[in-house]
Structures are given as structure tokens and as C-alpha cells.
Amino acid sequence: QVQLVESGGGVVQPGRSLRLSCAASGFTFSTYSMHWIRRAPGKGLEWVAVISYHGSDKYYADSVKGRFTISRDNSKNTLYLQMNSLRAEDTAVYYCAIGGNTYFDYWGQGTLVTVSS
Amino acid sequence: QSALTQPASVSGSPGQSITISCTGTSSDVGSYNLVSWYQQHPGKAPKLMIYEGSKWPSGVSNRFSGSKSGNTASLTISGLQAEDEADYYCCSYAGSSIYVFGTGTKVTVL
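Predict the joint structure of the above. Result:
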């Protein structure tokens, strides 16, 4: 069955970096676009970034552009999110999700990132 | 990109029908029939309920239905059940591979 398992979350100081991973199994990872989506405490969902199936095309929300980088390793069935210059407002549960045509087909359980001094 | 506007809460009794609205702009909801809806129970991952405005993913009950008029999309839940109590989010494609979510609606089954 389809599985997406996020990892790499934790507590980090403002201005520091963190890299999230999403291990995929149960489907042909290399043929799907992949997304990162987050939910801040007490707030709604926010789309963060998308990467094409081959990894060449990447798009970001304005709120993270220039600070976050999405990437993937199709040989390892793994999606990544490199987060630099972290801010308090980046505190959230981060989910990876399989890209349907223009929707999010299946989501992982999420990993919590807390940015605090 | 500004979040799409949803009511903060909607409630109904078991067996009733409720409708959640999702209002955007001519740049997102109004330009594309590409609104999707997600259900999220506390502490759980979101689940796709409707895609491309009105289509059901495999395994989703047809008690859930989607529609759109102008810049507003809607999700209707018919025959409300206790298990439907959750947060619901709409999401619209906004062009250039960008997506925008709604503010979220808490559904309470009375």
C-alpha cells in the first residue's frame, strides 16, 4: 500500500536550517510530482512547494521562496525539503503529498518543526 | 496569494445535509474548475474527498459532492454522520503551478 513517512522535524533556533525527508513506498515514486504542505498550530493548511516527477521543475509559495528548496532522489524514493533562515512563523507540521493532476492524492502523517529560541 | 475564504464552522444533525462554501477570486477558483476538498480529523493526515470540482476519488462516499458557481466552490455533505465531524479545507489551482488553500471549516455533528 502507499506509504509516505516524513522525518527530520524538531526544535530549531530562528535563522538556522533543517532538512526534512519523505520516504515513499507502494507506488512508482519516479512518475509522480510531489508536494510539501504545512499546517501551523491553530491555523489552516498552506501549500509550500512542488517538484516535478523528474525533479527539473520546482515551484514555491511566496512565503518560503528563496529560503526553502525542494528536491528528490528517485533512486532512493525520497523527497526532501531544505529549510534555511527559519522563522518563528515556519513552525508547523509539514506533510508530503503525492501530486495528482492538480490536487494532492495521498498525504503522509507529517513531521513537526518548531522554530524557537 | 491570499487564502480562500471558508466559514469557520458549520454544524448539522445526523442525517441532515450541510454545505461549506469556499470563496476565491477570478485568479483562482473563478479561472479553473480545479478545486479539491480535504477532510482532516484531529492528529491525522488530510484525506482527499473531491477533486477537479466534483469528482470522487476511489473509496470516498458519494454523500460528499462538489460544485462551483463563479468564484465560489461548495462542498455538500448529505446524510451527515458522526464520522464526518472533522476539519474541511478547499484548495484551488491558481496557475503557474501554484496552489492556494481555504481557511478551513470545522464541521460539528450535533
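The longest strand of chain A covers residues 18-25.
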